[in-house]
Amino acid sequence: MQDWRVFQRFSDMREAEVCAALLKTGNIPVMIEDNTRIADKFFVGEDYDKNIQVKINFQDFETAHHLMAESAMKSIALLDEDYYLYSFSDTELIEVVAKPDEWGTIDYVLARQLLTQRGMHITDEAVDNFKEKRLANLSRPEDGLNSWATWGYGFLLFSVLITIWRVLSLWGLIACSMGIFVGWSLMHGKKTLPDGSIVFLYNERSRKHGRFIFWTGVVFTTMYLIFSLINLKRGSDLPGFL
């Protein structure tokens, strides 16, 4: 059974295809998912600027990372002498090694080489410690109460106020629908870590608010639809529905 998970994200299809071709040389099943035509701002927990996803199976992540590192070793020899990483301080290079998911495989491999050349050999044990700390930091859930929850409650409040004002309103129904989406996002928003594991994006408190927003929106939307059907059966022209 395929267990597709996001391995890397790109903003350019050509870069995604190069990555996919490299993975295929290691007999790793790969698929490319292009979400650029979808309103990316509505995807929770994703990188909004990189909507092209290269996906592989969870069990292939470690093999894929090794394959990418081997390819990066060959690519380093082709870099220009003024490549920006050459001007980095030791501290900056260590940060690159500690956060390879932010900098990319080539920068990660080159940073380790440069540190070794400067007499600061980074052992595999140190790298493993960096990975553990990085994964622990990335897996820490966020507090969505100051962002998404505010929007969710705002949509619900708007739907109530506009309903009081115009009885039945299409804008109220739209607001409820948006509240449902926000609630669902808070409840189920997830992110893929560099090792392929998937964790919730928001903490439990935020997810509780998400459940309340979601089900409240569902109830309001159901009421809108029921009253609309009743008025239609009565032959009402639904005054002020728009």
Kindly provide the radius of gyration, computed on alpha-carbon positions and rounded to a whole number of angstroms: 24 Å
What is the string of SSEs from the N terminus onward? EHEEHHHHHHHEEH
Strand order of the largest sheet: 1-3-2
Per DSSP, what share of the residues sits in E-state strands of 2 or more residues? 5-15%
What's the helical proportion of residues?
Answer: 55-70%
Q: Number of folding domains?
A: 3
The helix-and-strand class reads mainly alpha
Provide a count of the helices: 9
Give a quick account of the main beta sheet: strands, pairing sense, barrel closure: 3 strands, antiparallel
Gap from first CA to last CA: 48 Å
Gross morphology is elongated
Unreliable residue stretches: 39-46, 238-242
- This entry's quaternary arrangement is single chain
Instruction: Count all strands and give the number.
Output: 5
Average pLDDT score: 85
